[in-house]
Amino acid sequence: MSISSSLPSTLRVLFLAAEAAPLIKVGGLGDVAGSLPLALRAIPGEQLEGRSLDVRLVIPYHGEVARKLLDPQPVASFLVNHPSGPIPTRAFITYVDGLPVYMIEGAPIGTEAPVYTGDNYIDGLKYAYFSLAAVEMTRQMNWQPDILHANDWHTALSVFYLAKRRLSRDPFFARTRSIIGIHNLPFMGAGAERALDEFGIRPVRDLRLPEWARQFPLPLGLLASDRIVAVSPTYAKEILTPEFGCGLQDFLNSRRSVVSGILNGLNQDSWDPSRDSALSKCYTMDSLDDREENKKALLQEFDLPYDPQVPLVILISRMDPQKGVDLAVDSLKEMAHHPWQAILLGTGDPILESACRSLEAQFPERVRAAIRFDTKLSRRMYAGGDLLLMPSRYEPCGLAQMIAMRYGCVPLARSTGGLRDTVFEDSTEHPNNGFLFKDVRVEELNAALERALKSFSNRIFWRELQVNGMRQDFSWEKSALEYANLYFDLWENQR
Ligand code: ADP
């Protein structure tokens, strides 16, 4: 990275998200928005060549957040333009571990609505408003952002709005540059068109975008953004292809020079087998024999027999076709001639839930299906399971495989997206830490599962896989520095 002397010594970054842990978390986006801004602020000055980052987060003032906070301070009160009349808006600030977090309050956000209703007209109204309000809030506070970092479709319109402000030569935003993070491309905000109409945002005429996408929030953000970042290097390449591009691949290819991928990090304090209070026995990579106590306790909890020779296969996942739960169930059935036990944890699609239940019904002496969301159980499973199945059809980044490795549970994954960037089998550059298969075919998964099940009896080899996984660096520090470099590069190259 080279930083010219004309750069400001502190780059101001506004990070926008629909959710951010620990204030409000529904899914993986909440984890990222809760950790990345903090990790960016924690980068030591010498790694930024003496410069610094003033990163601030903005989220909607969801009802659930309001109920948690004791003393949010008002920072701005203003009107957001709307064709049928300006919307009174207030912004508040709170601090999470020193990170300034702004919260936008206004009628379209409501006081009781969930983060996502699943109805994109309603969510479209809320997030179109939030995106515009968050940008205008900076003007009200006279805090000129150098970088606007939006995430997913919910906040994509902030980037689109910024581009319009720049086009109309709004001096306040003349120097502001934008980044949009793609955490899950298929969710583009389809269904929000009427909501955008109501905000006066009409379909764009840009021929690079397919006609159907010209009034969807995410494509509009991707069109307007200075940089596009997917949550893993492999996913960044995959979204340029018909298999993963969701119909936007040609458009994304037209912007490929600004597309890159940065792997999400893992909160290593929260996921740490050496001090996880949910475990029967804590352990490190130097005391992996202690791990066995967790396997025994887990099997006992589920009333399954313990046999150190029999691998315990686990699955911890949203029950969604994306996750390949159907493939996992089919493959376990087809590999029934091998000794294995399995515990499956997840909720979601009723068809997949019932596929897991019927696997248990078919093999009551060795399968258990826990159809619920249970974080403590997931921790006991990561610590007690031998092999994690993650046969995702697509996987922008994936956390479960990283957690599994940190806990010495060996992943078996489809070689796609972030899985491909973190799980290695016979790689020339990385030590083996798991098992991979390529195509979405149960035969391929069977072959990988057979390799894994057979390898389990080779204790030395298996221990090596565990240790290699546990040694891997999944920290946010590495990824945060990549984002920081991107911010500085973007700033420098746009001038
Ligand atoms: P995604 O965000 O697409 O669901 P990830 O692998 O990135 O997938 O993250 C999933 C996270 O949710 C992991 O931390 C995993 O342990 C957790 N998880 C998924 N299903 C459950 C469940 N039923 N109970 C507890 N934790 C779960």
Descriptive terms for the model:
6-stranded parallel sheet, 9-stranded mixed sheet, globular, binds adenosine-5'-diphosphate, disordered N terminus, alpha/beta, 495 residues, 17 helices
Quick summary:
The protein is of the alpha/beta class and 495 residues long. It has 17 helices and 15 strands.
Give an overview of the whole structure:
With 495 residues, the chain is an alpha/beta fold. 37% of the residues lie in helices and 17% in strands. It is built from 17 helices and 15 strands. It has helices spanning 28-41, 63-68, 120-140, 152-167, 193-198, 217-224, 233-238, 249-254, 291-301, 325-334, 350-362, 375-384, 400-406, 417-422, 442-455, 459-471, 476-493; strands spanning 10-16, 52-60, 73-80, 87-96, 99-106, 147-151, 177-182, 227-230, 259-261, 312-316, 341-345, 367-370, 387-390, 410-414, 435-437. The strands form two sheets. The chain has a nine-stranded mixed sheet with strand order 3-4-5-2-1-6-7-8-9, sandwiched between helices. Strands 12-11-10-13-14-15 form a six-stranded parallel sheet, with helices on both faces. The longest helix has 21 residues, at 120-140. The chain is globular and about 70 Å long. The two termini are 16 Å apart. Adenosine-5'-diphosphate binds at residues 27-28, 316-318, 345-347, 373-375, 378, 398-400, 403.
